[in-house]
Amino acid sequence: MRDTARGQRRERDGGRSPGRDGDGAARAPGARLAAGLVLAQVLSLQLGSALAKGTYGQVGPTALAGMRLGFAALVLWTVVRPRLARLTAAQWRAAAGLGVVFAGMNTAYFQAIRHLPLGVAATLELLGPLALALALSRGAAHLLSGLLALAGVLLLAVPGGALPGAGIAAGVAAALCRAGYVVLNQRVGRLFPGWDGLTVALGIGACLLVPVAAATDGRSVAAHPALLGTGFLVALLSSLLPYSLDLLALRRIGARTFGVLLALGPAVGAAVGFAALGERLGPRECAAMALVVAAGAWSVRTAE
Q1: Taking the CA of residue 74 as centre, how many other CA atoms within 13 Å lie in the half-sphere pointing to its CB?
Q2: Which residue from 242, 267, 206, 234 is spatially nearest to 37, judged by alpha carbons?
Q3: Residue 144 in contact with residue 294, Cβ under 8 Å?
Q4: What secondary structure does DSSP assign to 104-172, as a single string?
Q5: Closest CA to 262 of 107, 105, 116
Q6: How far apart are CA 82 and CA 86, in angstroms?
Q7: Tens of pLDDT along 80-115?
Q8: Residues 141, 157, 237, CA angle at the centre, nearest 5°?
């Protein structure tokens, strides 16, 4: 009887062992694809940050944050056109929460890169997701991969001289927002079909941030209208592509794995800052890059 039952189960499973060839084989390609998506968003985000930072002599960070979020929302609303009347209360709550996080995260991060090198700003921002990854760890391998990434992040966050207090405060605020972003973006991705949730969230964030940006830096943008084109490119590189890639990645992996993979951001940010802005790298920064890259690779191998 037992042999017959086992044979029937094997036939239903296609003759495969679920623990080895079934679920595990299905998860592995998804984890690798998610890793590629996260790496692409990290590179795009840092390129957009470098472009934005290069304009700070003409306009302030709040204006760039407002243009980034405003243009991103405008493009997605034009393409997606979500039907608001069909949204449930749960969908509205999730999108509204993510929209508030978008506004805060953009403002804090663009203030941080005003005072700090790109790699250091990205490092501070990632303290939030890494803390989330450690909190969600369920085994020794998970915990060690998170701690390895955290060690690299902390190594990169302590340059030779003292960091400006304003930059540290902005980086910590961005870290808190980033942790909330990981959780809420995953929830939005599960509650909404397609891109509707991201579109609604960006629209809410833009409604909150754009008026503030116009009030504080509207005259600077009017004096340099070419900055609108720069703002659109920043929106494409720093919002549209990264947020869309994040949504796809969070549908394939959990928040813990996603948080550790985001630790690649400081290494990429330091490299982009050096290439685009002349922000120099030292042995400590290179060692930190090696740590976070190793943690990211380990995270994919131990993905649930």
Answers
A1: 11
A2: 242
A3: no
A4: HHHHHHHHHHHHS-HHHHHHHHTHHHHHHHHHT--SHHHHHHHHHHHHHHHHHT--SSPPPHHHHHHHH
A5: 105
A6: 9
A7: 999 898 899 999 999 999 999 999 999 999 999 998
A8: 85
